[in-house]
Amino acid sequence: MSVQEAQFRTAVAEKISEPFFFDRSSFQKRTASVAAAAAAEAEAVDRDARFPREAIDTARQQRLLGIQIPHRFGGDGASISDIADMCYALGRACASTAMIFAMHQTKVACLVRHGAGSTWHEALMRRVASEQLLLASSTTEGQNGGNIRSSAAAVEQSGAEISLVRNATVISYGAQADGIITIARRAGDAAASDQVLLAMTRDNYTLERSLEWETLGMRGTCSAGFELKFKGSAEQIFPEPYDKIHAQTMTPVAHLCWSSAWAGIAAAAVDRAQVFIRKAARGAGGQMPPGAAHFTAAKMSLTKLRAVITANLDNYAVHEHDERALSSLDFQSEITLLKVEASELAVATVMSAMRACGLSGYRNDGDFSVGRHLRDVLSAPIMINNDRILANIATANLMSGVPTSLRD
Ligand SMILES: Cc1cc2nc3c(=O)[nH]c(=O)nc-3n(C[C@H](O)[C@H](O)[C@H](O)COP(=O)(O)OP(=O)(O)OC[C@H]3O[C@@H](n4cnc5c(N)ncnc54)[C@H](O)[C@@H]3O)c2cc1C
């Protein structure tokens, strides 16, 4: 780099208070080392329903937990596309690791996009980057299922101190996390939909286990139920109302990261099916086995799945700092439906991969087993139930027009 170019880059970096030349080239290598650790323990994590300790420790060593934090707070300033790629790579190795990473990054995105300007939240960003803190999410409460836009537990305020007691039916890796980001009713007299987002670290909450996590798949997410008791400072409430954070960041980033993790699981199943079909064809002197058509179907739905994710990633990247565009009916309905579409395509892909492998795919032992992938990916349609999403979106969808051209 010439002296002039270096001077120019430094001047631009100072102006936008971010370095102009992030070293993105390291992201792939760092992710690959986490994926290798995740793949090595994936079977044990699933069998024993245990937290993927090695994988998350490696993510800490590779400084991936703070990778999205802006440079000025000690992170690498990774973009949403970088993060989605990481979720995909980890999904190919271990579904639980990928989902833990996806959920953590969604919380970090809320912190980055809605915490800047608040001294408490900026300090937390610095801690996430320097200490590689793992953040969990608490939205599900009592019997409320995936009805995130409604809270029962309310923040109690006494001067500058606040407290919260929450029946958190599901908190993935709650026992292992260093902090939790939760929704809550703004105050005792607030409506269920008048919510705030609140960040807390280990030193200001306790968790008492109320439900175990003995499930079909995603067993390593350790998504047990807890009674969450928090005492802290009013500064820990995000400065912006939750409805805004929900629409602009929580939903888009969660849906993009989850979908990428599910696509990774689907890709891993397609990988196995491909090796199986190749081997079968070789063994039959080049003759395709009957399951080959299912392999083609698996590849086709994986292609669709990746296309729908990348189209939504590009759309979000273009509008991510444009509040009006993000709150438009069209954007909201597209990003909401991404979750439905991606989860159904991921399940279809893994099913086709299993049918391509036949009994070898159905077995729990052997190199072509896709049982774990199928069990893991079946969580996708119920992780915020697709039925609930489709029922909620019906009215808004009726109001938006039918496109008159392919690219309008
Ligand atoms: C792997 C995994 C990890 C998770 N991690 C977390 C976490 O870290 N933190 C957290 O807070 N939560 C977490 N959750 C919970 C998640 O956010 C949802 O709360 C949960 O998946 C909803 O489950 P549900 O289908 O039982 O609930 P509901 O959404 O209540 O659905 C229950 C049933 O009612 C039906 N239904 C509901 N509403 C409608 C409607 N309007 N129209 C028609 N049918 C409807 C559904 O089809 C379903 O059959 C996790 C879930 C999974 C699977």
Tell me the layout of helices and strands.
Elements: H1 3-15, H2 25-48, H3 53-61, H4 80-93, H5 95-115, H6 119-131, E1 135-138, E2 156-158, E3 161-171, E4 179-185, E5 195-201, E6 205-211, E7 224-233, H7 242-283, H8 292-319, H9 323-327, H10 329-357, H11 359-362, H12 371-377, H13 386-399
Parallel strand pairs: 1-4
Antiparallel strand pairs: 2-3, 3-7, 4-5, 6-7
Helix pairs in contact: 2-3, 2-4, 4-5, 4-7, 5-6, 5-7, 7-8, 7-10, 7-12, 8-10, 10-12, 10-13
The structure holds flavin-adenine dinucleotide.
Order of helices and strands: HHHHHHEEEEEEEHHHHHHH
Q: Main β-sheet, in a few words?
A: 4 strands, antiparallel
Please give the order of strands in the largest beta sheet.
2-3-7-6
Count every beta strand, where a strand is a DSSP E run of 2 or more residues: 7
Strand content: 5-15%
What would you call the structural class?
Answer: alpha+beta
**Cofactors and ligands present?**
flavin-adenine dinucleotide
What is the alpha-carbon Rg in Å?
22 Å
Contiguous helical run count: 13
**N-to-C terminal Cα separation, in Å?**
41 Å
Indicate the overall shape.
Answer: globular
What attributes characterize this protein structure?
408 residues, three-stranded mixed sheet, alpha+beta, 13 helices, four-stranded antiparallel sheet, binds flavin-adenine dinucleotide, single chain, disordered N terminus, 7 strands
